[in-house]
Amino acid sequence: MTDKPEKTHKTIEQAEQEGKYIRKVRSFVKREGRLTKGQERALNEHWQTMGLNHEDGLIDPQVVFGNDKPVVLEIGFGMGKSLVEMAKAAPELNFIGIEVHKPGVGACISYAVEQGVDNLKVYEHDAIEILADCIPSASLSTVQLFFPDPWHKKKHHKRRIVSAEFVETIRQKLKVGGVFHMATDWENYAECMLEDMRNSQGYKNLSETNDFVPRPESRPLTKFENRGHRLGHGVWDLQFSKVD
Ligand SMILES: C[S@@+](CC[C@H](N)C(=O)[O-])C[C@H]1O[C@@H](n2cnc3c(N)ncnc32)[C@H](O)[C@@H]1O
């Protein structure tokens, strides 16, 4: 009888400890999606002026935009329609959008060009890495996170982008007085967001009732929100300002 071969299979944790690889839990699953002709053209013709690249590292917003207007950062803008509408309505601000879904980035650029919007730049990359590598500390006047993927099942909650660590990262990137604005149509996620924000030092809740705020006029209805309304979901907005 031969000896049983030694079991060589390692757990993920063992491999991580040995520095073999770092396991990443991402807040998105990359969807394959074909680009429409219009999205492809927009990316080819306007990336040079509207696109920002992760590999270029830390940005200086004043250099990027050629002025020192306050900067609004939106994470996960989807197809970008509401972001373009906000940028068009607020020429006194600069906007940076981050989205991983390439057709969405193409659609956003295409719509921005059509609308003559020139105060918007976009990244096609994971927002977590952009925040870590490209956005300077205390540089943002607003961070927007509208209808992030809710990851409904409990076993998937670790994929949710909002966590204690994430809200602290956002706080570091905001100027004092800057606002972190989130919205979701998933009640359990809204409650978790509120808990993370309440537990975080250095934020003040802008809600008069110390929980949620009514949707501000400045936030147009997003594509996802419209879908939520059709499904009969409620919507919860949270706004917190950085106090120190
Ligand atoms: C549910 S959709 C909402 C889109 C849009 N905000 C709206 O309200 O219509 C969430 C979006 O976030 C993007 N996303 C998720 N995690 C991301 C990340 N780490 N970095 C950049 N985009 C992300 C997804 O690709 C998706 O387009």
TrEMBL record:
EC main class here is: transferase
Q: What is this protein called?
A: tRNA (guanine-N(7)-)-methyltransferase
Organism domain of life? Bacteria
Residues reported to bind S-adenosyl-L-methionine: E74, E99, D126, D149
Q: Which GO terms describe its cellular component?
A: tRNA methyltransferase complex
Q: Which reaction does it catalyse?
A: guanosine(46) in tRNA + S-adenosyl-L-methionine = N(7)-methylguanosine(46) in tRNA + S-adenosyl-L-homocysteine
InterPro entries registered for this protein in UniProt: SAM-dependent_MTases_sf, tRNA_(Gua-N-7)_MeTrfase_Trmb, tRNA_methyltr_TrmB_bact
Family, per the entry? Belongs to the class I-like SAM-binding methyltransferase superfamily. TrmB family.
Involved pathway(s):
tRNA modification; N(7)-methylguanine-tRNA biosynthesis
Q: HAMAP family this protein is in?
A: tRNA_methyltr_TrmB
Pfam families reported for this sequence: Methyltransf_4 (PF02390)
